[in-house]
Amino acid sequence: MMKKYKLIFIVFVFMTVLGGCAEQKILERLSLATLIGYDGGEGENITATAIIRQVNPEFESNVETLSATARTSKGTREQVSAQVSKKVTVGQLRVVLFGEELATAGIRQSIYTLLMNPEISNGIYLGVVEGEAKPFLEYQYENITDISQHIFNLLEHNIERENSISSTLHEIGRDYYSPTRQIVMPIIKRKENVIEITGVAFFRSEYMVGRLPAKDIFYVKMIRDGFEKGTFELVLDGENFESVSTGETPEELAIALDAIKTKKTIKLIDQNTPEYDLNFKISVRLTEIDASIHTGDKKTLEMLEKEINKKMESELSRIIQFTQEIDSDVFGFGEHYESRVSDSNLTHEELAEMYSNMKVNVQVKSEIIRDGVFGME
Amino acid sequence: MKSMNSINSNHKINAFLIVAIISSNQVGVGVMGFQQQLYQNAKQDAWISVIISFVLAHLAVFIMIKTLEIYETNDIYEINQDIFGKLIGNLLNVLYITYCGSIFFLILKTYIEVINTWVFYNLSPWFLSATLLLLLIYAFTGNLKVIVGVSFFSFVITFIWLFSLIPPLEYAEVQYLLPVFQNNFSDILKGTYSMTFTIVGFEIINIIYPYIKDKKKVNRYAHIGLLGTLLIYFPILLVSLMYFSGEQLSKTIWATLTMLSIVRLPFIERIDIFMICFGVVIILPNLCLYAWAVYRGVNSMIKISLSAFIWSFSALMFILTLFVQTLTQLNDISRIFTHVGFFAVFVFPFFLYFLALIKRKFRKTQVIQ
Fold first, then answer.
1. Which of A100, B76, B188, B336 has the fewest CB atoms within 10 Å distance of its CB?
2. Is A184 helix (H, G, I), strand (E, B) or coil?
3. CB atoms within 10 A of CB B33
4. Which of A10, A121, A268 is the best mutation test for B, with the most CBs of B within 10 A?
């Protein structure tokens, strides 16, 4: 009996030792692709630009930018492989960027490939680069040592702070495969030696069809997911405040608000048009306002709230109208319609076409809960 | 009929352990990706399919236990021999053994497939199957008590899956569950049917029953075990339905794992990989219990020692895993065994109960005469 257990033990030891040889992934012997940018090349080809990080035994990691052109993304990987001294892996991939040209030509294949690869986490961020991705990534930024980490952090903290729409691979895949909801992605751009989020790209199916500047991201996000902690700025008409102003009111009254609580409700009121009521109830903290406005007064606050409502309603309507013009239902109104109207015989395509004729009534009810530590009486 | 191999009371187990045995045997590799087929059939009403399949399972378990209660000390193999006679009974037993062996094979092979697609792409399958089978042999030679211990451990640990559902909830869209009841009832039933391979496992009661100390409590604990399984499958399904959009889910092969890949913890980058490795704990009781079922079946016909059986059985399984190489082959086999499993678990027990009742009546009248 003892003999047999010894045998099992020996076999086990052999198995484990041999098992270790199965597939080595030693950090020092790997090239980690941490960011990949895709551009549309000539014809059917795609150009991939990869940021590759190599960890050295001396704990100094160096970052290289390499690019290759091939028919498939695996093909580009092989070509990149031929340019580096260590095996390329994509397990640490954090961000994938698309050149504007490729985004306009369609990103279906890229999304599919990314979703198919089990090495790649569904939590990676996707984005669009204004212009081409290759020069954007190859540029020598003065203060940025690792561009991939930098872009990842840039996207992550902005998404977390609700300054940017979230564009994880999962969400892109979800919206792409939903016939009645379209993709949105942040647009980034190089500005001298700084990388910044400059806008939001709207897609119809796999094609990028429109964009809005960065200051509108907030509203896109607000309609899409609601918001919890975002800070935003509004420019109100100064004239309306003359009666409550103590000094000279500026023509344009800029205020800054900090959201505390929001509630978004969406209601289908007419199935045929279709018509929607989109209501927001927001509680905000007033963080900045012109010194001449005396916020201690109840009447002033009420007036302020009214103006905020009006301003936000018009901005939100403008955004919705814009997406209707480019026919990109990024807010999932079609999806909502499908989930509420069970007896509709509309196909997904018909429903998607209906979007441009939908009517959306936006209503905002804001409430200023408090302001800072100075000013209110 | 007196049991041929009466069981030493030392080998008997407490009735409450049935909860762990049934639940751990049900939760297997299916938990990693049962959503795809289910969704393809029942769409957003898939959760109704799951509830229906569990209602059926409760019914089947109830009938199984009723049948076993008629005999008290016998397992299904001896019941078959008693009802159908030596020849047909043994033929049925061989079929049942083949069924258990095939499920064993499918679990083993599917798990290897998961490891090969997600973690080690180039690691040869034979190495993985050899490792898992050695682990099985190690547990199995410890007799039923060790197997039950493994089940209990696995049962407790399985609930970790539920915690891993919390981060994906952030992306959940409740409206994907609406509208309810939009699909035909027949589609929902098809979904229930496709759950078969996922839900089977409770039929182990047919084999374990003679080993239980307090037989009166079996019924209660068996049903609690089923509820335990529902408590794992139902939340996973519900979250997946809300997390993925329709077509995305019908294209995602291992939905639970894909869902987990978005979770990023400070100390573990990819929790899905962790959960796959963790899967050994989840499939080990399945392997052990099905091997035990095969062992009892073989033992009812030919006397064979425990270790001789498990070594030869493992060797057979090892050779069989070498023949199935691609995912399509595996899918074909599992499609066939959905039908077989449905018959073995949801149809045959009712049939058997009916015959057992007739037989008992017949015997009683004989005694009176």
1. B336
2. strand
3. 20
4. A121
A226-370 CATH, one of 3.10.25.10, 1.20.1090.10, 3.30.300.210, 3.40.50.20: 3.30.300.210
A356 close to A324: Cβ distance less than 8 angstroms: yes
Per residue in A258-295, pLDDT (tens digit) is 888 888 888 888 888 788 898 989 888 888 887 777 77
Using a CB–CB cutoff of 8 Å, tell me whether B176 touches chain A: yes
ipTM of this complex? 0.84
Residues in chain A with CB shorter than 8 Å from the CB of B131 are: 15, 19
Mutation site, A339, A343, A345, A347, interface B, largest B CB count within 10 A: A339
Binary contact (B175, A341; C-beta < 8 A): no
Kindly report the number of other CB atoms within 10 A of residue B152's CB atom: 18
Tens-place pLDDT, residues A89-140: 888 888 999 999 888 888 888 888 888 888 888 889 999 999 888 888 888 8
First to last CA, chain B: 19
Question: Where are chain A's structural domains?
Answer: 27-213, 226-370
Phi/psi of residue A21, each to 5°?
-80, -10
- Tens digit of each residue's pLDDT (9 = 90 or more) over A73-93: 778 877 887 787 778 888 888
Domains of chain B: 14-368 (1.20.1740.10)
Q: Quick one: pLDDT at residue B4?
A: 46
What amino acid occupies position B364? K
